[in-house]
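Thread: quick sanity check before group meeting

JM: Hey all, I'm pulling together slides for Thursday and realized we never actually wrote out the predicted structure for the chain we discussed last week. Dropping the sequence here so it's in one place. If anyone has concerns about the input, flag it before I start.
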Amino acid sequence: MLSTAFDLKNQIISKLEFSRNLENLSHDNLLIMGMGGSGVAGDVMKVLSNEISDKNIIVRKDYSIPKQIINLRPFCLFISYSGNTEETLSGISDAIENNLDWMVISSGGKLIDVAKKQDKVFIKIPSGLQPRAAFGYLTLAVSKILDSLDGSNFVSQLKEVSNYLETLSKLNDESEINKLSLEISESINNKTVILYAGTDMSKVVSSRWKTQINENSKSKAFVGNLPEVHHNEILSWDADEDGSKNNFIVILLRDKNEHIQIQKRFEFTKNLIGEKVVVLEVNLDNQENTLKTLLELVLLGDLVSLNLAKKLSIDPENIRTIEKLKDLLGG
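JM (edit): ok, ran it. Output follows.
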């Protein structure tokens, strides 16, 4: 699946199918609903929107739309790669019942069918992938929506980012970014990964790293955010130091836009827990803008998870446990 990870540069400049009225969007309150690999696109959209707009964006990963959100009368964006995610379909039912306006992003399934039937806006992305492997398509789709809502130029930025990713990965397995991912995966090995982030962008990236490590390498990974972890979790490293050193690795995902106090907190974190657990810092040299940095870190994390799967002799495409759970819920 390394080739799928490297395909990110192509996905973000692809041609997508969309309904004729996409360009006419205009909303101040936006609710985004989606799960898993699809839901992270909502997090990306919120981070990008925060840079250019004062629109109220709510990302919700659940079945229902609470009354306090309904009262805002938001425009709703439902994202499901398959188009058949039960939580997302449940959200659409709530939107219809409460007469909210909405649109969908999907590769097909019931979401596209319902959108067409009710003459709603949709963006259709290519099918045939597992949801987590469609990150580039989903990022392109939400960028197109933001350009329509706010007059931004994220789609144009993606063309520049694609060229940059092409440069980073032109040697594929022998590229420097893959070599770095191999080093990180070697450091992880059988350990449980704890990811610490300190900005909105790095929080999205840490969530992506977590889910990719979970799904591709079937390994445990968890996320903590600064400064919150300094009010509780940092104490957890005081007990069982031998167990921590043998079984855990803390990865610090850094961002040049960190608050000065967050910068200090990262340094203090390394000093305070560095002798109690393995600490690894990921800090890119080239951080020109949020979209470019986010996608480079996503590519790196995807490669880490896939190389870790190979190291552990794990099939990254095996999702049988998730499918069994879906069967149980359906039954």
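AS: nice. Residues 2-160 form a domain with the Rossmann fold fold (CATH 3.40.50.10490). The beta strands are 17-18, 29-34, 56-60, 75-80, 102-106, 121-124, 192-197, 221-225, 248-253, 278-282.
JM: adding both to the slides.
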